[in-house]
Write a structure and sequence with these properties.
Blueprint (H helix, E strand, L loop, with lengths): L1 E8 L19 E2 L4 E7 L10 E5 L6 H4 L11 H10 L13 E8 L2 E5 L4 E12 L2 E11 L4 E5 L1 E2 L5 E2 L3 E4 L2 E4 L2 E5 L4 E11 L2 E10 L5 E9 L9 E11 L2 E5 L2 E5 L2 E7 L2 E5 L6 E3 L2 E5 L3 E11 L5 E10 L4 E11 L3 E14 L8 E14 L8 E9 L3 H5 L3 H5 L2 E12 L3 E12 L4 E16 L18 E15 H4 L7 H12 E17 L3 E24 L5 E24 L2 E6 L7 E15 L10 E5 L5 E5 L14 E17 L8 E17 L10 E9 L3 E10 L1 E3 L5 E5 H5 L4 E15 L3 H7 L4 H14 L4 H9 L11 E18 L2 E19 L4 E10 L4 E2 L3 E8 L2 E8 L6 E8 L8 E6 L5
Length: 930
């Protein structure tokens, strides 16, 4: 075997004495500051050893360095040497044709000794040897040319401290030691007092032997996830162990120590997974006692790492009083294509003692499926899903987080979207909404929407270069079809397990509404006199339904009767249309001031007048309304499509003259932050509008109530919204509008029928994206935004980020010493009901304040809180207090909910590392025991 040794000196100095011998060996050749390339043929039987050195300098090597090599050169190379003597450029060594050549590249920052008598080379000061994927660094290296063995250790400085300890690296494995020896032929090594990272933790041992198959034998060592080398806070100590790369670590007798104090628990052996990425294995359950359900084992099961793209986790709960549950979760991730997860839950909850008055038993389930398609997977098509279906009691007894406990509304959506040439868009969607308090369930299964982008059919008609009014004519098209369900869950799911076929037929017949709608808007906007915009619109609607009702009067034998309603299945098509024309402009007014805190006041007035016409569709020819003769001989009209999906054409003709007066008011003040104009705008009234209409088709009570709406934001934080309704007509004793003006009957222009004020304030100090996530639980859009921003920032690896997003309240942020968020909401609504000509006001209001934040008491202590006050009910809202202590490789957490139905506390101290997350002590009082 031939080893080609490149020895380069980064900084060569005068010859020093060997750090470990009093004098350098006789016959040493002192190397002056040059770049050295040694070609050393090495044969396995050591019967013959040729040593030829070639010295190459950045210029030309001096003769006094080349001449001593003459005696070592074979006769075949004499001519080359003589040539070198004159050219001082190159020497070609002679070597066996059968030699196998591998490069070992060595370097040192201080000096190099070559001892041809002992056939060794010594390197001092930041020495380094490279061989294939192996890198050996130390302050001292000794290379034996006969045995191809390299020894390494540190050196003692003037203060008596060892510096430059050996560091051995092969691929992704790194070993730090006091002393080591490695044979490049056999690929075996012996390391003393080593420290290396394996399987997410740290291995150390008094003596380690590295075998040629890359396995490692350790004597008198330990394993920990604490990065303190000399005295880790905890470790698992063993007498011997074997490390099998990318497989496992097998130890002999093993015991645990905390702060170097051994615990009286010894295991005969241990097997620690040592594979990169995900690892299959058992999940240790937590144990405890529940007052209502008995002793329990919770969240125990098995994790199956199927491959790099898929994994499966199955968790289960069991209680001594009969309750049990199972929670499988399947996750998948195909890079640049899609990712998602399917989490299921099924639980039998038995609360209390069977036979007791307070005993409860329920069977509950949960389905949560998320799927996201990578935007890079396809430019035009996209498929996404967010399904969250939960039975009414599942989160009551089986909630995993505080967010689950407080949630009572769940929404689901599955959508497929595509487009054709960027002009026609198709969406297939299935959606679901559920309230576990009211038990109301609504679902669209499925729904299809086809949309054609707005286009201008007459855009290119007419002479080029001249714009005509008809060129602004635009058209569009939207088709929507769906099957819709709206009922309580006890009715919808009754009988689903006993007779699925019968249940499905009943759903289609009695509960599911179906329909298709088509909408074609036609618009044209014309500019008049440069300042007016005249917009004309025609909207065509078509409705397709598949069942309707027929009513008739049935007389009884006792001269009474009733209305019989029959549901007729079959296709029916309805149409309606409406036309409108609106004229609008903007009027600007501004008052400027030369000096003072206000430099200008700007007012924008936007008046709009228009006309809207909708015909009467009550005529039988339209097929929307029917009639029957009741027992008194009176004709009664009814809607054949009552409660239809998209509504029905109106039976009342409308000709509305509409008006709207919009206002915007803002001021301009000096600003030092604006270096261009020195002025900034501050809105006083973002919007203030007055609107109403007059119906020319009515014979009386033509004016509609007047709507007044206003909106503004003060100090960029306080939002104010106002709305009210004012009726110009008087009311009778029952509060019904009559054809007499309020000013005539009561001497005032308008009669107030209702008003609403809403104040909202959200203010935060040192708020960041992760705090927004903690403060707005359940906001999926915000989670997606933070997910995208965090992944792009590279702050977290994917597993850490998934853990944070899945459990935002468990995340501890140390980047700011404190943060505080304040939310305030006041909504005051007044509605007026009239009886005996007297207006009776009913006032309702919501008045709450919320406060949440955290403070780092020390660099290791963090206190977080979330609370609020309900001024209407005069009580504290949901309150959560938490204390966190960073214990280096451990962590301690105490969480307390002091009041309410979720009153509970939890104390946990555990190892931080995910590999040993089950190494913990936990004590808690569960909210389900209340």
């Amino acid at each position: 075997m031939t080893v080609v040794l490149f020895c380069s000196c980064k900084q060569m100095s005068h010859i020093e004495k060997d750090k470990h011998t009093s004098e350098p060996p006789k016959g040493d050749t002192a190397i002056t500051p040059v770049r050295i390339v040694d070609t050393i043929p090495i044969v396995s039987d050591s019967a013959h050893l040729d040593t030829i050195a070639t010295f190459i300098t950045d210029t030309i090597a001096p003769l006094d360095l080349i001449t001593p090599l003459k005696d070592s050169i074979n006769e075949a190379d004499t001519l080359r040497y003589d040539t070198l003597k004159h050219t001082r450029r190159h020497i070609t060594p002679h070597r066996s044709e059968s030699a196998i050549e591998t490069k070992v590249i060595c370097s040192a920052a201080d000096s190099v000794y070559r001892d041809m008598g002992q056939k060794k080379i010594f390197y001092y000061g930041n020495a380094e040897a490279k061989y294939d994927d192996i890198v050996l660094k130390a302050d001292y290296l000794e290379f034996d040319l006969e045995t191809s063995t390299c020894k390494a250790h540190g050196t003692v400085d003037s203060l008596g401290k060892i510096q430059g300890r050996p560091v051995f690296t092969q691929g992704e494995s790194t070993f730090e030691a006091v002393e080591m020896s490695y044979n490049f032929k056999s690929k075996k090594g012996i390391i003393s007092k080593v420290w290396t990272e394996e399987s997410g933790g740290y291995l150390h041992g008094e003596r380690i032997k590295r075998m040629d198959d890359n396995s490692i034998n350790i004597r008198s060592g330990g394993y920990t996830t604490c990065d303190l080398k000399d005295h880790p806070h905890y470790q698992f100590k063993f007498t011997k162990a074997k490390v099998i790369p990318d497989d496992k670590i097998v130890t002999g007798p093993i015991y645990m120590t905390i702060s170097d104090i051994p615990l009286p628990i010894v295991l005969p052996f241990a097997m620690i997974p040592n594979t990169k990425g995900k690892k299959s294995g058992l999940i240790i359950p937590t144990y405890g006692e529940s007052a209502n359900r008995g002793f329990y084992l919770e969240n125990g099961g098995y994790y199956w790492a199927i491959n790099d793209n898929y994994d499966l986790q199955i968790l289960g709960d069991i209680y001594t009083r009969g309750s049990w549950g199972i929670k499988p979760t399947f996750r998948y991730n195909k890079r640049y294509r899609f990712n998602g997860s399917m989490a299921l839950g099924f639980a039998v909850n038995k609360i209390g003692t069977k036979g007791a008055a307070d005993y409860q038993e329920s069977t509950d389930f949960k389905i949560h499926w998320t799927h996201k398609q990578d935007p890079k997977s396809h430019p035009r098509r996209n498929f996404s899903a967010d399904v969250n279906i939960v039975s009414s009691n599942f989160n009551k007894y089986n909630a995993q987080t505080a967010t689950d406990q407080l949630s009572n509304t769940f929404r689901s959506s599955i959508a497929y979207q595509t487009n054709f040439a960027g002009k026609v868009y198709l969406t297939l969607n299935a959606s679901h909404s559920q309230n576990t308090l009211t038990r109301q369930v609504t679902a669209s299964l499925p729904e299809m929407t086809l949309t054609v982008n707005t286009f201008y059919p007459l855009k290119n008609v007419g002479k080029a270069g001249k714009k005509h009014w008809y060129q602004s004519l635009s058209m569009g098209y939207t088709m929507n079809g769906k099957a819709y369900i709206n009922d309580v869950d006890t009715v919808l799911f009754h009988g689903i397990t006993d007779n699925f076929g019968g249940w499905a037929r009943e759903m289609m017949r009695d509960h599911i509404q179906t329909g298709i709608s088509h909408r074609i808007p036609i618009n044209a906007t014309i500019k008049l006199f440069k300042h007016f915009s005249w917009t004309n619109s025609l909207t065509l609607n078509d409705y397709m339904y598949f069942k309707h009702i027929e009513q008739q009067w049935i007389n009884n034998s006792d001269s009474t009767g009733y209305v019989q309603t029959d549901t007729i299945h079959g296709f029916r098509n309805l149409v309606d249309f409406s036309a409108s024309s609106n004229l609008t402009t903007k009027i600007y007014g501004m008052v400027n001031f030369a000096n003072g805190p206000i430099r200008a006041i700007r007012h924008v007035f936007t008046p709009t007048i228009g006309f809207t016409y909708r015909p009467n569709f009550s005529d039988p020819k339209w097929g929307v309304y029917g009639s029957y003769i009741d027992g008194n001989g009176d004709e009664k009209t009814y809607n054949k499509f009552v409660n239809a999906l998209y509504g029905t054409p109106s039976q009342n003709q409308q000709g509305l003259l509409t008006y709207s007066l919009g206002n915007n008011l803002e001021i301009k003040v000096p600003s030092r932050s604006d270096t261009i104009t020195g002025i900034k705008k501050i809105p006083i009234l973002e919007s203030f509008s007055i609107s109403g209409n007059y119906d020319i088709t009515k014979d009386s009570v033509n004016f509609s109530p007047i709507s007044v709406n206003g909106r503004t934001t003060l100090f960029k934080k306080l939002g104010i919204n106002y709305s009210s309704s004012w009726d110009p007509y008087a009311a009778d004793s029952l509060g019904r509008r009559i054809n007499r003006f309020e000013v005539i009957d009561n001497g005032r222009l308008f009669r107030k029928t209702g008003s609403s004020w809403r104040f909202s304030l959200n203010y935060s100090f040192n708020q960041n994206d992760l705090k927004k996530l903690q403060g707005k639980k359940g906001s999926q859009d915000l989670r997606n935004e933070i997910n995208q921003n965090a992944r792009q920032s590279g702050m977290f690896d994917p597993d850490e980020l998934d853990e944070i997003l899945g459990n935002p309240n468990a995340y501890i942020d140390w980047t700011t010493p404190w943060s505080l968020s304040l939310s305030y909401n006041l909504t005051y609504t007044t509605s007026l009901a009239y009886a005996a000509f007297m207006g009776i006001a009913t006032n309702t209001y919501v008045h709450t304040i919320g406060l949440n934040g955290d403070i780092s008491l020390t660099p290791k202590w963090k206190f977080t809180f979330s609370t609020g006050w309900d001024f209407v009910n005069n009580k504290i809202s949901y309150t959560n207090l938490s204390v966190y202590r960073d214990l280096h490789c451990w962590e301690m957490r105490f969480n307390w909910i002091p009041i309410g139905s979720y009153k509970s506390w939890n104390f946990t101290i555990n190892v931080k590392a995910q590999a040993l997350k089950d190494l913990k002590y936990e004590k808690k009082k569960d909210y389900r025991d209340n």
